[in-house]
């Protein structure tokens, strides 16, 4: 491959990130002059790529969607199938990093005509891989922009509405996009709070890429798994209530670690903690993690409260009764294991 061809492909790869590129920044990235960038842009235009140029100090280049696909040797149906496949691959973690498929999807959708983008969006909402439940809709363009910000280590701002309906503005350094149960989560370093935060992407709005690079914080795969798992579990569910335990919040946080998400102090010596799940059994499991010897109360509502009480009463009766031996049970005709 000639140097000119390799450079043109590198330029195309940068333009396909769906970003506005100033001419000097492209030249610096490609290690060429701005005049060479202009010549390479013309070569791409000759090949059928619609590269828009804006003159002036704030000018630059970006790749536009055309009326037809550029020369990728793909039919319309093949391009749509590829876009859907990339989204499913990311959702099902068919590759090690979901951002890999999302950035590829962002590049493809950048050059898709609007009619094909509409087909992709419609099919994406209808296609549910086996074993996957329906989740909140997230525009693929938003996922692509976040994936690129994670890959390029660029700070972003956005509006976020939490589960209680409270709207806040966030200034973050995005690190990881992760799918869990048909929902997307963005793991970030929150600059205003000086700590890790995990956001549901379907609750984001008004995303703004600040084009400000940052140095990534240390983040192990184990940390990613734990932070995203905590965020995906910390939602109001039918079997949820608040536990108020006789434990200062500092000791509570030291005991529960990341799972202390949502805890708040109740005076100097007590802590309120939301605990629960889809059923009362998951709520019971959460309560079992209250440290040994620590008393607590709960406002778990009916009917889960009665179901939990009945289950625990049966457990206590079972513990109080003498265990039955094999000789005490009626013969069932089954052979004893050899």
TrEMBL record:
Residues 4-59 form the HTH deoR-type domain. PANTHER family: PROTEIN PAFB, PTHR34580. PROSITE patterns: HTH_DEOR_1, HTH_DEOR_2, WYL. This is HTH domain-containing protein. Pfam families: HTH_11, WYL. It comes from the Bacteria. Gene3D superfamilies: Winged helix-like DNA-binding domain superfamily/Winged helix DNA-binding domain (1.10.10.10).
């Amino acid at each position: 491959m000639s140097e000119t061809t390799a450079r043109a492909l590198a330029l195309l790869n940068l333009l396909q990130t769906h970003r506005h590129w100033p001419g000097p920044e492209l030249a610096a990235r490609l290690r060429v002059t701005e005049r060479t960038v202009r010549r390479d842009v013309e070569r791409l235009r000759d090949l059928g790529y619609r590269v828009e140029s804006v003159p002036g100090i704030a000018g630059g280049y970006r790749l536009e969607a055309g009326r037809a696909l550029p020369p990728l040797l793909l039919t319309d149906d093949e391009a749509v199938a590829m876009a859907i496949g990339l989204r499913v691959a990311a959702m099902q973690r068919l590759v090690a990093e979901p951002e890999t498929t999302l950035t590829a999807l962002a590049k493809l959708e950048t050059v898709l005509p609007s009619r094909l983008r509409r087909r992709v969006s419609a099919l994406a909402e209808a296609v549910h891989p086996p074993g996957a439940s329906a989740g909140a809709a997230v525009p693929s363009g938003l996922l692509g922009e976040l994936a690129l910000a994670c890959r390029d280590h660029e700070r972003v701002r956005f509006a976020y509405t939490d589960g209680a309906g409270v709207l806040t503005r966030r200034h973050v350094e995005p690190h990881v996009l992760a799918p869990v149960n048909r929902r997307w989560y963005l793991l970030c370093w929150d600059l205003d709070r000086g700590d890790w935060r995990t956001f549901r992407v379907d609750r984001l709005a008004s995303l703004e890429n600040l084009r400000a690079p940052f140095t990534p914080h240390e983040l192990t795969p184990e940390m990613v798994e734990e932070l995203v798992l905590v965020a995906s579990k910390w939602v109001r569910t039918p079997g949820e209530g608040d536990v108020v335990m006789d434990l200062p919040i500092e000791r509570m946080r030291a005991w529960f670690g990341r799972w202390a998400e949502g805890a708040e102090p109740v005076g100097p010596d007590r802590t309120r903690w939301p605990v629960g799940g889809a059923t009362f059994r998951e709520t019971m499991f959460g309560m079992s993690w209250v440290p040994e010897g620590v008393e607590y109360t709960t406002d778990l509502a009916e009917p889960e409260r009665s179901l939990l009480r009945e289950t625990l009463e049966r457990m206590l009766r079972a513990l109080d009764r003498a265990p039955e031996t094999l000789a005490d049970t009626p013969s069932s005709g089954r052979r004893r294991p050899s």
